[in-house]
Design a protein that fits this description.
The chain is of the alpha/beta class and 518 residues long. It has a single domain, classed as TIM Barrel (Alpha-Beta Barrel). It is 36% helix and 13% strand. Helix 8 runs antiparallel to helix 9. The longest helix is centred in the middle third of the chain and has 25 residues. Bound molecules: beta-D-fucopyranose.
Amino acid sequence: MNRNSGDGAPGAHRFPPGFLWGASTSAYQIEGAVHEDGRGQSIWDTFSHTPGKVHGGDTGDIACDSYHRYEDDFGLLGALGVGGYRFSIAWSRVLPSGDGEVNQRGLDHYRRLIAGLRERDIAPVATVYHWELPQALEDRGGWANRDTACRFAEYAELLARELGDQVAMWITLNEPQQAADQGYRIGTHAPGKTDMALAAAATHHLLLAHGLATAAMRAVLPSGAQIGISLDLHPIRAGTDASAHAAEVADAEQNRIFLEPVLHGSYPGLARAELLPPSALIEPGDMTLISAPVDFLGLNYYSPHYVRLGDWEDLRRGETPLADHPGVVTYLPDGLPHTIMGWIVEPDGLYDVLRALDREAPGLPLYITENGCAADDYVDPEGRVNDFERVDYLEGHLDAAWHAIEDGVNLAGYFPWSLMDNFEWARGYQCRFGLYYVDFGTQRRLPKKSAAFYAEVARSNSLPSLDKGDGGVDRLDAAAAGGDRAAYAALATDGCESSSSSPRSSAARKASTTTGSN
Ligand code: FCB
């Protein structure tokens, strides 16, 4: 599965042998081809085509065109030297109406994708649900309807039967907290509802979907199949003693509301009642299904949240009201960097979450299934993308991950978000997270400096010292800047030569008016 040699330069942080280095994407964010080969409509098609919902009116209609270009994208993975690829399967390609008739052409696409990965010795890591509910199911109540969880289990079982023995790891759901919260409570994501009761119902039904799907998949998958879930977790830091309680409540409502049911079969008592599913929705046996043992836990980590007491009528710079918590704000602490999306950069947060998970589920294999940052990337006149911020971000977080392993955490792999720039949900194409720069006008892919950095990590299974004196940054500089053309060129694949950063013709770029974590 791994290409890494397990060696690494002297003084570097070595990762354990067999550590799985990968890269992450999701279907709606990269595939495009939304009307092709019988694909049905999803809630993100509807949402992105609704005026005012996505920055600049961007949609995933074309995205990175990976539905057609996936073979080229294998080249990007190969150039990075990764041993795993996390992608997602679009439900509405396989079952255009969410249930009923199977669309063979959709299924065949993923069969080809998976086969191509395996031929290249790259472990396929498939996410069953990365936020694209078939619109037909939303029309029947979406995740607020218990029936959707049953339809999801049928869909997952179909995938397990058809593709199961070829997939190395299955991730039932990606960040169900965002699907419930942004999708049904604050409305910044599809389907754009703003109703506490719907969100509470969606929370339970997403968890139930995970539980039912896990059971259904286990029944048909070969023994030893790996099934897990990816949760977005962020430490909530209290700025002052006075805000300690608010921080604990926020932690219950944002992190533990999904973590606790999966690990322990209960909802966190500290969360406010209106966010928790009412007991009438929880049927006997639900919590047992939801907490059936997983083979691994996927962690999506980007940033911590800082909270303190604050005046909503008189906000200070960097403060944002913490929704539904009057008198409490989130804020950007002085001295801590943040990304262009306002996400605080704090690698210690990753270390803390990993340690906390290890305490809570001792020995459970953990995978970082997402980690990365958006930056104002651009192609310079020499055709390079010198994304120093991203190299720093990755370096800091890999250092934190390495320390967590040193301190006994069973961390088994790392999948940065993202392999390439893509459709960043409500932010559209303005937020670039990729290791590869995508020129959306021509669909050319261009390795950024971070791709050179990450390839070195994945290939050596170690984090090089980036100390200037050691030649680390200089060496990367030289490679990325073309001083070592061979090293840099090795990252580019056919058709991926340098390109300008011209915007897609169809999508005008306007100021962002959207909020939310994506
Ligand atoms: C996560 C999503 C992923 C991507 C990153 C930036 O919440 O799972 O699709 O958008 O954020």
